[in-house]
Amino acid sequence: MPNILEVQNLAKNYGDFQAVKGVSFNIEEGEIFSLLGPNGAGKTTTISMLSTLYIPTSGDATIAGYSITRNPMDVRNAIGVVPQDLALYEDLTAKENLIFWGQMYGLSGKSLANRVDEVLEQIGLTDKAKDRVKTYSGGMKRRVNIGVGLLHRPKLLFMDEPTVGIDPQSRRAILDTVKELNRQGMTLLYTTHYMEEAEELSNRVGIIDQGQLIAIGTQKELTKQVGETETLILHISENDDPDALITAFKGIKDVLEANVINHEISVITHSAKDVLAQVVTKANERGIKIHSIDIREPNLEAVFLHLTGRALRD
Questions:
Q1: Which of 27, 34, 126, 260 is deepest in the core (most CB within 10 A)?
Q2: Which phi and psi (to 5°) does residue 101 adopt?
Q3: How far, in Å, CA of 197 to CA of 186, rounded?
Q4: How far apart, in whole angstroms, are the C-alpha atoms of residue 256 and residue 272?
């Protein structure tokens, strides 16, 4: 498939601080491409440049053949943007919000009315269309926000961390909406710091950290970078000292990495079964009780840890 987005050495500086450091990647028509990285990695700044909200310090990108620096209006017509912050009027109904934003896109009359009804159906809010947005749950508001980005039938949809701060049920509904939009032919650039979202949704993933794009590929391609490894996830009490245990684990021959997040200790090894007994022994020697143990195969979290030496969500 041809590329709908081509990014070439895109960078953004704020004084002496470089928020995005010359990133380059492509997105093919019809795929979901995820930018995965922790908060502050440069995901939103990248989206803001691609959507022509920010002017790049250097580099360029083309969307549907149009340059973000030379043809910004053509780019805006080709893209839809679902920002982190809600762009809605809470005293209006969902339908009124969509009508307002549709008019901002230049739609009017019967074509606007028909398109609003189509979008309400797409986001699953037809039966709530005449309710004021201020009565909606966080997840429903997010779905209206998605609807705004779809009104003008964009060729490429940017979704910037659309599930932040919502309940699990609403999050599930949004992920299902993303997959359905893609099934209908929509190409998406999706940013997230949730490894499980990138794993579920993406055809390809770009891992970004501290403004640098450090790896790109399918999940299979990326997990090959950590080799044939497994991860032990150890759950300990809040009163126990995880750092002392990590230091002890690093003395075990077959332990490749050991890190802690919120009293969950991740131990990366070539064979979890081979080191399990030694891990438990080290914990017992220090009087630390392991409440439960999970064994996980290589995933994007392990890739990030392998590439950066720290956890995705410190």
A1: 34
A2: -70, -30
A3: 18
A4: 11
Segments of the chain scoring below 50 in pLDDT: none
Distance in angstroms between the alpha carbons of the first and the last residue of the chain: 37
Residue 314 has a pLDDT of: 54
C-alpha to C-alpha distances, 119 to 106, 127, 152, 201, nearest whole angstrom: 16, 12, 10, 21
pLDDT value at residue 44: 95
The enclosing H or E element of 290 equals strand 290-296
3-state secondary structure of 72: helix
CA distance 89 to 148: 12
Beta carbons of 75 and 69 less than 8 angstroms apart = no
Residue-wise pLDDT for 223-267, tens only, equals 887 777 788 888 888 888 888 888 888 888 888 888 887 678 888
* Helices vs. strands in the chain: H and E counts, helices first: 11, 14
Going from the C-alpha of 88 to that of each of 99, 196, 253, 308, the distances in angstroms are 12, 28, 56, 38
